[in-house]
Design brief:
heterodimer; A: mainly alpha; 6 helices; B: mainly alpha; 82% helix
């Protein structure tokens, strides 16, 4: 799963710390999300998407092909 | 805040114990005792660093823990558990040749468990991916 958090954060002129405070998590969590090292819970994904006024699918991209290769 | 108090209290007790032991009778210091005290010092410093980081986060109005930190802690704990089981098994086997005293054996075992957790936690923080 990939995401557009970094791109959206730049568009909204938000720092990682500011986004973390809006969502209610630590800055480290935002760093891990942007690097793709952590798949968020539904609650966190919804919180991040709400910050950008987008649906979850607008922020997080579930790549079927990439995930199938990773699982196989 | 309670967790921070517990962390710093445990750290303080361990540090006091280490200082009392070091300043005590110094005629029976062998390489094992020196290694054990160094490991204990490393663990005390690690706990202190974790506590200071949590305190800084609290002062910066950041949450001291969230879902990612809990996932990391769980993964580090589970990996350390597996390593510790085999560590004790290896120690029991090795003790048949090394003939360590029971106190030394327990000290080495507990130190090994703590080191295993520290290594697992560092791995979870720096290298591991949490995208299962």
């Amino acid at each position: 799963m990939t995401n557009r958090i970094k791109e959206l954060r730049a568009r909204h002129n938000l720092s990682q710390l500011e986004l973390a405070r809006l969502v209610g998590v630590r800055r480290e969590t935002i760093v891990f999300l942007e690097k793709g090292r952590y798949n968020p819970s539904l609650r966190l994904a919804h919180g991040v998407a709400r910050c950008f006024n987008l649906p979850i699918e607008g922020v997080f991209i579930f790549d079927d092909e990439a995930d199938a290769n990773h699982a196989g | 805040m309670k967790k921070l108090l517990v962390m710093f209290t445990a750290c303080a007790f361990a540090a006091i114990g280490l200082v009392v032991w070091v300043l005590g009778n110094s005629t029976h210091r062998g390489p094992w005792e020196l290694a054990f005290s160094l490991v204990l010092l490393l663990l005390i410093c690690s706990i202190a660093i974790m506590g200071v980081r949590k305190l800084r986060a609290r002062r910066a109005d950041e949450p001291t823990e969230d879902e990612l930190s809990k996932v990391m802690m769980m993964e580090a704990s589970s990996h350390a558990y597996y390593v510790s089981i085999y560590l004790w098994f290896a120690l029991m086997l090795a003790n048949s040749r090394l003939h360590l005293g029971s106190e030394s054996l327990i000290g080495v075992g507990i130190s090994g468990m703590a080191l295993a957790f520290l290594a697992s936690w560092i791995w979870a923080k720096t290298v591991a991916r949490h995208d299962d």
